[in-house]
User: Fold this.
Amino acid sequence: MTPSLSINGVDVYRGALNAAAQAALVQAARGVAEAAPFFHPETRRGQQMSVRMTSAGAFGWVSDRRGYRYDPVHPSGVPWPAIPAPILAVWHDFAGTSRAPESCLINYYDANARMGLHQDRDEASFDWPVVSVSLGDDALFRVGTADAPRPSQSLWLTSGDVVVLRGEGRLAYHGVDRLRPGSSQLLPKGGRINLTLRVVT
Ligand code: SIN
Ligand code: FE2
Assistant:
């Protein structure tokens, strides 16, 4: 597949997932959240992040006063559920590797949530891509370079878009400035779900 556009090596596939595929992914994410409920991570300084998170796979991403890390269990102590098949299928369609992902982070953004510019660099190797799926309300996605958060460019991601960070884009700074509340009917209560698939070890 050819990306619709590429910013500093960050590939954006517009409208990659049709309505039925999006609904199946939401259903899959809901199943994960039933076993491993969404939680509000805290930063090391004790500030609550605005995005709610949970995970599937061998490792989930957690952040608390001990810092942030990949952890084999949910904060409640239960193991993360397996990555559901429809989510794995997206990885295999876009990642360009036969290696399976070890983590699917599920972020939920309500109307006021955002995510500051950061690099994904908690993984053992940057040779594997990061595959990210947008579901629900539009999000203003900001992309810097691998060297610095600025200069940056922004674009609106809409439901069904897939973003792949690979090559020079693997370590590009990225974040979400804000949502466009009410722009999608996919999630009954509105907001946005982002699925982020990664190889961790
Ligand atoms: C992330 O970088 O973890 C999330 C990006 C997004 O929500 O699109
Ligand atoms: Fe990220």
Observations:
- The chain is about 15% helix and 35% strand.
- The pocket of fe (ii) ion (ligand 2) is lined by residues 118, 120, 174 (CB under 6 Å).
- The longest helix spans residues 19-35.
- The mean pLDDT is 96.
